[in-house]
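Hey, I was hoping to borrow your eyes for a little while. For a while now I've been wondering how a particular protein folds. The fold is given in discrete form, as structure tokens running alongside the sequence. Could you read through the record and tell me how the tokens relate to the sequence? Take your time with it, there's no hurry, and the full record follows here:
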Amino acid sequence: MAGRRGVSCPWGALPALSAALLLPLLPGLAQPFGLGDLSRRQPGEPRMDQAWLHIHSELLGENVTIAWLSDACYQCLFQELVPVPLEEPGVAVDSQHGMTLMVNSTLEHKELCSVHYHFGEFGNYSLIVRTDRSSRNILCNIIVNQKPVNSYLPIFFAFLIYTGIFTMLALGQFCVNIEPIRNWLYKKMNPRETDRLINSELGSPRQTGSVSSDLPPGVWSTGPAIPRLRSLDTFRGLALAVMVFVNYGGGKYWFFKHQSWNGLTVADLVFPWFVFILGTSTALSLSSMLRRGRSKGQLLLKILWRSFLLFLIGVVIVNPNYCLGPLSWENLRIPGVLQRLGGTYLVVAGLELLFAKPLPDGTSTEAPYSAVQDLLPYWPQWLFMMALEAVWLCLTFLLNVPGCPRGYLGAGGIGDQGKYPNCTGGAAGYIDRLLLGEKHIYQHPSSSVLYMTTVPFDPEGILGTINSVILAFLGLQAGKILLFYKDQHRQIILRFCAWSVIMGVISAVLTKCSTEEGIIPVNKNLWSISYVTTLSSFAFILLMLIYCLVDVKRVWSGAPFFFLGMNSILVYVGHEIFENYFPFKWKMHDTQSHSEHLAQNLIATSLWVIMSYVLYCKRIFWKI
């Protein structure tokens, strides 16, 4: 493979540029499937993620009210949909989740009948309320007047297009393995400068190179450094690609948005994986820098500076409260994604540096305690992490929050039958509002739509940062496995699988394999410990698979995600800053079409992939 012999711009990934040729095909996804021009839809007709419901009551002399409850809203109050008779010919209803419609008597305030149904997007339905002649019971029936559209077809066509792109990538890689082509490419490219730039910064594990000969005697092990692992950058790039896509809108599909409260969607996976791989890279980079003779004092300053820059960029540049007006202290959001990364990195890297020890030059599976040799030397770190988790548990379940029950983990609003409307997030929300102030945290949490919460809540708040540190520390453990069992692929794979199973079992116990009924549900807003164990279980398995394909079997170069991973900070900050600028966003012909939103978001994400590839070829890497 060309990339394995140091070609700076691997031609196995060159077909990624073919994406630029295929991108003009994507606007074809934006054509509505038999819907006409939805932006010209008449008032009183459904919009995206809605259906239209006509209500017909055959109850003579009986005034009724229709209430609704979404399946995705746990233990919520029914909300009034519309009184009957209607002033309009119908009413729009949600088509993202199933719902229960309940018909109530206006005068007697009692339930007459109810029906559960999952409406389809842009479908036309009728709710018939009538009295059964034989039993005299009141019945509710849903009749389909016009079938809904298949709103998932654009995803299918996008899948076909990108499958074609990756097929071209594979063919390009095959061509590179042909000897005459490979030899010609080697003559045209000089890899050394690129490798030097890549391996010169803290945060990037080394690929090649010998240990410095200027090490002070007896300070650190002078064994060979671990080779640079493309799988780590590939993992990071994959998480970043999905993050960019969902941040740009994810085609406006609900499963590409954050979950309202408990549970997981695709959007809830990526940030934890970013935190996990941050820990993995930290273990490898610190070990590499120490082997090369850098003092702990120098590295501590580096860690402090990097954490400060991440926090500063997050507060000043990537701040969602800009939508409230010009940035000022009155509405400055203090927590955030980069702020949490900076704080997490400071704790995990500082702790690793404090207890860093020379690694043995070689490991043997027959040595005493070989099964836990990547754990035992670091028992103080594990004690510190257990103490941190004890703090999270105590604050979450024992802190007295005014007006809320102890240990409350709910969304508030209309959840829990509306008993605790201002208790969103329990202790986590209370601590943020108390220490930071309501105007300095996120103003539009994901719970505000379904649960109708009105209290600000920040998913990157103070209390959740504790579990972010725990997740990064588990990623650090993955890095130590790579260090201790260097070149022992079977041992690495077995340990990744074992950690995945352990974390999965802990998650099963905490959640009782249920979305809502567990001891501690999986919750991205709270960064609950079950969320951390679940996502780390996924991360260990995913990293193991990528490691096998990219670094062990070498059947995949990691393209195109590898290039995103090499410039992750630049891509993340850039996609936030230029989100509303052409060519990442433009005025749509039809704003009520999933297909056009999906095309726009895929094109925007693909452009960042292409730019990261060009930057890689130009040897431009922005490191903090």
Notes: The chain has 17 helices and eight strands.
